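User: Last request for today: this protein with flavin-adenine dinucleotide, please.
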Amino acid sequence: VSARDLLDDVLAKLLLRELKISSVRDVSPGFRLLELHGPTLVGAKWSPGDKLQILLSTGSRTYTPFAFDRKTGTLSLLVFVHGDTPGASWGRNARFGDKVRVFGPRGSINLQELASPVTLFGDETSFAVAKALRDSRQSGCAFVFEVGEPAIATEVLTALGIEGAHLVVRRDQDAHLVEVEERLAREAARASASLVLTGRAPAIQKLRGGLKTRRLTVQESKAYWAPGKRGLD
Ligand SMILES: Cc1cc2nc3c(=O)[nH]c(=O)nc-3n(C[C@H](O)[C@H](O)[C@H](O)COP(=O)(O)OP(=O)(O)OC[C@H]3O[C@@H](n4cnc5c(N)ncnc54)[C@H](O)[C@@H]3O)c2cc1C
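Assistant: Here's the final one, the structure of the complex with flavin-adenine dinucleotide:
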């Protein structure tokens, strides 16, 4: 065994956690709520906006933990099953008792530090971070999501206890982003909201440009996926 192999082994043991799926719930078509549990999570650190990387045979895929309970070592994930890709297939096939190897929770977006109120933009992959944000503040958050199916999105958001989100249906050539930008600008002007952009990379890029032209600052942004890219992080 080489020193390198030994080091990799030690690092993996230090950083990797082995968890088990302790509950699976189909919230709505295309959305699965998974609860992961393991003694190695007891006492672990977590902040709202952190990420969790799931180790799959083909690489890792990233999700957003919420409802983290450091006493019992439990957290929840909401997986958007968008296709037949490794992450989505893992979510689709997840069963009670399955073993899961993960890195994290680790820092991604620092929601804790943001001045209230916070307005979060995202898509179906951002409902979990929205839940983490909502749970961390009594009030003072607003949500704007671009979605494919508003009825399904509403069902999922309601199940998560997120009321009053503004949903904008995705349109060809991103025509809907005009409405999204307008809405974000209004929130920023009305309530001096901290703006956080998450989700689809091209949407974030266009909105950043538009908001900059309006001299509005985006406090945090994090692309969760991009068309044609795999396992973006
Ligand atoms: C910090 C962070 C937090 C995240 N949190 C969550 C979360 O809580 N829940 C969640 O569901 N996702 C979350 N994501 C997004 C998720 O990691 C990506 O969607 C990832 O690509 C899924 O892996 P995959 O194997 O299904 O697809 P990949 O193999 O990575 O991608 C293959 C192709 O699928 C397409 N694709 C990827 N994602 C989507 C999508 N959402 N809609 C349509 N097409 C897509 C793209 O064209 C891509 O090229 C997060 C990502 C990051 C970086």
